[in-house]
């Protein structure tokens, strides 16, 4: 398709390629030359690309696009059909690989020339063997809907037919065409999807009368009855053409262009309608570009109401502009290029982003050795070996400036960067830091063993994932929680979690509390946080295949309160966990990262996802399953060949892929299922649990937070407006089997309004653009300018360091605690502005995902604060006046305050 992809007014080229050759996008420089789209701008492409179409699906002013492939949404067909290309695992650390994926792709334009793949979230990833997509606002509500032609003469992906044909041996060349006759026919219903305007589509083919079965390829649009809306013509193989009259009666505006010769139809012109059903609608006039098809070049827009007064603007291919004011509904406007005026180019004013990428200051690349987890467990759906690294900020050398610590994979070394306090870093060396790690490092914590004695606590895979420090009983001494996750080769069985106390110069197991954590689940993240404001921290755990678990601290003894707080029903694949006062009510809310809604699992979440696990030949086997509403059965996620790798008896039980595909999990697994364990996950959204005192209320984070798996969760005020914000690290590439990598994120800042509402900040405004597998993230004002800076790790790739240059500077607060807790871990702070307190902030000893934020808190000051309130671990509270003009203060446990600068 030739059309203006990047919005510069000249036509670019999108080429759909079937099978091995990837799709190509060539951008026109307007001077007769083309360049390929940057590899990081488009994360992947469809494998069997058939047709492409463009539209601004969310009316944000930027054109998105959709490419068709061949994946079936029907369980039986999907399980019986084979891939002809196959999906290979992404190489470690290769952020710009651009793999081909075996489903439809829908790419959301971020507004800066890059795209996020959202087909699975939008509900349009699987539409059968498909050919021609057309965006058309069928119901004239202002959002362009999606029509698709489908079908094929023979289902050459049918694996049962393949096996029968292969069993017959070699075929003479002259008889090869007869092989086709051995495949089943594949007539399919056409597809129609209504655009809901929120990046989601709903299938409405039967409702709209666009679901006839057959084999249809080409599709074209034209106003055949002159009523101002577009009708549809479909080519049917070996049959008469299908003609579909659009019967929408909603008000509309039709536009036809009269261009200067030889481009008399105005091909390449862009048309905008202002003031219709939505504030702005836009379409481009194209010629051809559809699969074997071409439209009549009339464009139709939704008017909203008959009384709306609208405006049409046209940008002609030659660079001139036409404007029609006072546009009325239910009219056809023909606009002549002869009356167009020269366009005045408005200078582009690009605002400076809040964060500046200064990763060159550390020049760190995470070491990760490739490991094939499927050799241990063939049915794993993701690689557990690519889960790190964590990051931490801690004053390792005791000079008053917090240094940067980055974990390593097996075979690498722990990296520690000394902070010089002037914005520079130098990698520290020495015998302990030169030691090669024998396992992947997981959680990281800095800890002061005694005066001048800094210790770096590093978890080790596969057991010790979520590490956290907290003053459990208010005695001024920190305890250490070690979250257990996976036992190697036995996923999803959980390793035990433990609590340690520092006694007589060494860590010892807290036997009584550890008993409560032994069978707690697959712990991915942990944080100590005082949820009930009694001065004693609760233990909060993010668990995979389980809920967020909360253990109430009763005078140093933990008691699980997950059910009482209303959290039991939210089982998920939770990754990271932290707390923050997002609604400014003085109670700490829980922010939990999860897998999101942009995966292959999104299409079958009518009931919770399931995993069954139990002993089998060679070790522990697992079977992922889901409820299929069409079949009214719980069915396996994977096909016969893969499931039989872990459970060979399945292949003995089923002779054909179709028999297997029609069976339920009960029928397939039989007696093995009766002995198997079962876990469920029904919540995959990344969410906030708002603290209401005696219970929590769940609220999913905005759409942008659901487009990729999230890991690290960091709460702070990044722009200094007085409201707490959230940062999420995102993406996961290390998928097994036929699942495609999750790559639609690039690190996400969510701006808070102080009332509990969060909105996504674009990468252009934030400055954070990380395209790889982000893992740990941590906050620190490393140069002391009163703005929160950010470090984000990537698995097998460059660690990204971001300097905050655009936020409003706040007040730096240091706490001086007792010898066993010198940084005051667990203390809570609030600035007071006259009679009004700001949001609560708590100092965590490890939070988010395997990471540790700075102990120096940057408290936002939208206006000059008068006092600071502190609750120390144990419950002691103090309120101290802040000296006028202070930029940094230090507070002691007795309430005395020192102005540092």
Topology, please?
Layout: E1 2-3, E2 12-15, E3 24-28, E4 34-36, E5 45-46, E6 52-55, E7 64-67, H1 75-80, E8 100-101, E9 105-109, E10 115-117, H2 119-122, E11 130-136, E12 145-150, H3 159-167, H4 176-179, E13 188-189, E14 191-195, E15 201-203, H5 205-208, E16 213-214, E17 216-222, E18 231-236, E19 242-244, E20 252-258, E21 270-274, E22 280-284, E23 299-302, E24 310-315, E25 320-327, E26 331-336, E27 341-342, E28 355-357, E29 391-394, E30 403-406, E31 415-419, E32 425-427, E33 441-450, E34 453-460, E35 464-470, E36 479-484, E37 498-503, E38 506-509, H6 511-517, E39 522-529, E40 538-546, E41 549-554, E42 557-560, E43 572-573, E44 577-580, E45 589-592, E46 609-616, E47 619-628, E48 633-636, H7 640-646, H8 649-653, H9 657-661, H10 665-669, H11 671-675, E49 677-681, E50 687-691, E51 696-700, E52 710-716, E53 725-730, E54 748-752, E55 758-761, H12 763-766, E56 774-780, E57 789-794, E58 800-804, E59 811-816, E60 828-833, E61 836-837, E62 841-842, E63 857-859, E64 867-871, E65 877-881, E66 888-892, E67 897-899
Parallel strand pairs: 5-8, 20-26, 59-66
Antiparallel strand pairs: 1-2, 2-3, 3-4, 6-7, 7-9, 9-10, 11-12, 12-14, 13-16, 14-15, 17-18, 18-19, 20-23, 21-22, 21-24, 24-25, 25-27, 28-58, 29-30, 30-31, 31-32, 33-34, 35-36, 36-37, 37-38, 39-40, 40-41, 40-43, 41-42, 44-45, 45-50, 46-47, 46-49, 47-48, 50-51, 52-53, 53-54, 54-55, 56-57, 57-58, ...
């Amino acid at each position: 398709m030739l059309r203006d992809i990047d919005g510069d007014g000249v036509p670019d080229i999108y080429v759909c390629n079937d099978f091995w050759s990837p799709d190509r996008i060539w951008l026109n420089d307007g001077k007769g030359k083309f360049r390929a789209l940057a590899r990081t701008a488009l994360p992947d492409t469809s494998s069997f690309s058939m047709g492409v179409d463009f539209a601004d699906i969310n009316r944000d002013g930027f054109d998105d696009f959709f490419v068709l492939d061949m994946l079936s949404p029907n369980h039986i067909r999907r399980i019986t059909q084979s891939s002809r290309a196959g999906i290979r695992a992404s190489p470690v650390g290769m952020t710009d690989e651009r793999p081909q994926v075996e489903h439809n792709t829908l790419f959301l334009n971020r507004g800066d020339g890059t795209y996020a793949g959202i087909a699975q979230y939008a509900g349009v990833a699987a539409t059968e063997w498909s050919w021609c997509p057309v965006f058309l606002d069928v119901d004239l509500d202002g959002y362009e809907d999606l029509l698709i032609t489908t079908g094929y003469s023979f289902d050459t992906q049918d694996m049962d037919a393949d096996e029968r044909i292969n069993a017959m041996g070699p075929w003479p060349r002259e008889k090869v065409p007869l092989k086709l006759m051995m495949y089943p026919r594949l007539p399919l219903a056409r597809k129609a999807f209504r655009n809901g305007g929120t990046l989601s589509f709903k299938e409405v083919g039967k409702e709209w009368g666009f679901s006839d079965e057959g084999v249809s390829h080409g599709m074209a649009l034209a106003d055949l009855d002159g009523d101002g809306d577009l009708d549809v013509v479909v080519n049917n193989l070996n049959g008469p053409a299908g003609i579909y009259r659009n019967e929408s009666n909603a008000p509309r505006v039709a536009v036809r262009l009269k261009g200067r010769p030889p481009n008399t139809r105005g091909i390449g012109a862009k048309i905008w309608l202002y003031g219709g059903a939505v504030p702005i609608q836009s379409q481009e006039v194209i010629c051809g570009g559809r699969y074997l098809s071409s439209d009549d070049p009339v464009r139709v827009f939704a008017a909203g109401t008959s009384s709306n007064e609208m405006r049409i603007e046209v940008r002609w291919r030659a660079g001139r502009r036409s404007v029609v004011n006072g546009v009325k509904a239910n009219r056809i406007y023909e606009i002549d290029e002869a009356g167009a005026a020269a366009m005045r180019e408005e200078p582009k004013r690009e605002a400076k982003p809040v964060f500046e990428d200064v990763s060159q200051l550390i020049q760190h690349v995470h070491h990760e050795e490739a490991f094939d987890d499927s050799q241990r467990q063939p049915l794993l759906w993701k690689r557990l070996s690519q889960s790190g690294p964590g990051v931490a900020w801690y004053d390792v050398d005791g000079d008053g400036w917090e240094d940067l610590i980055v974990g390593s994979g097996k075979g690498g070394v722990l990296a520690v960067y000394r902070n010089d306090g002037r914005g520079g870093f130098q990698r520290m060396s020495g015998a302990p830091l030169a030691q090669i790690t024998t396992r992947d490092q997981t959680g990281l914590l800095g800890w002061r063993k005694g005066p001048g004695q800094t210790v770096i606590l590093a978890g080790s895979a596969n057991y010790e994932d979520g590490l956290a420090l907290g003053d459990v009983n208010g005695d001024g001494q920190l305890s250490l929680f070690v979250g257990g996750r996976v036992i190697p080769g036995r996923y999803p069985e959980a390793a035990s979690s433990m609590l340690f106390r520092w006694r007589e110069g060494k860590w010892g197991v807290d036997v009584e509390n550890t008993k409560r954590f032994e069978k707690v689940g697959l712990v991915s993240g942990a944080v100590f946080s005082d949820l009930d404001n009694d001065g004693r921290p609760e233990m909060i755990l993010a668990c995979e295949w389980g809920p967020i678990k909360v253990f109430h601290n009763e005078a140093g003894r933990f008691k699980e309160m997950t059910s009482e707080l209303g959290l039991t029903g939210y089982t998920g694949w939770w990754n990271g966990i932290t707390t923050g006062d997002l609604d400014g009510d003085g109670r700490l809310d829980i922010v939990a990262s999860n897998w999101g809604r942009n995966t292959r699992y999104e299409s079958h979440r009518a009931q919770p996802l399931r995993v069954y696990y139990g002993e089998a030949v060679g070790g522990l086997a697992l079977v992922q399953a889901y409820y299929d509403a069409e079949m009214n059965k719980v069915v396996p996620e994977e096909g016969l060949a893969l499931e039989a790798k872990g459970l060979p008896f399945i292949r003995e039980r089923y002779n054909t892929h179709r028999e297997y595909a029609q069976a339920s999990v009960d029928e397939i697994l039989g007696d093995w299922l009766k002995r198997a364990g079962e876990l469920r996950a029904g919540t995959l959204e990344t969410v906030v649990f708002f603290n209401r005192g005696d219970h929590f209320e769940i609220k999913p984070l905005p759409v942008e937070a659901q487009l990729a798996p999230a890991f690290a969760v960091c709460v702070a005020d990044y722009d200094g407006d007085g409201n707490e914000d959230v940062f999420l690290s995102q993406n996961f590439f290390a998928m097994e089997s036929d699942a495609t990598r999750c790559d639609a994120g690039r690190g996400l800042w969510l701006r808070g309004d102080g009332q509990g509402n969060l909105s996504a900040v674009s990468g252009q405004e934030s400055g954070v653009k990380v395209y790889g597998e982000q893992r740990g993230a941590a906050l620190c004002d490393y140069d002391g300018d009163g703005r929160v800076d950010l470090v984000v790790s990537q698995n097998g790739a460059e660690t990204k360091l971001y300097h905050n240059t655009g936020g409003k500077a706040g007040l730096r607060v240091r706490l001086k605690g007792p010898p066993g807790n010198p940084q005051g871990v667990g203390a809570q702070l609030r600035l007071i502005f006259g009679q009004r307190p700001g949001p609560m902030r708590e100092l965590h000893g490890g939070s988010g995902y395997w990471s540790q934020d700075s102990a120096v808190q940057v408290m936002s000051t939208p206006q000059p604060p008068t006092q600071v309130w502190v609750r120390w671990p144990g419950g002691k509270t103090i309120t101290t006046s802040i000296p006028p003009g202070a930029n940094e203060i230090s507070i002691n446990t007795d309430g005395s305050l020192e102005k540092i600068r």
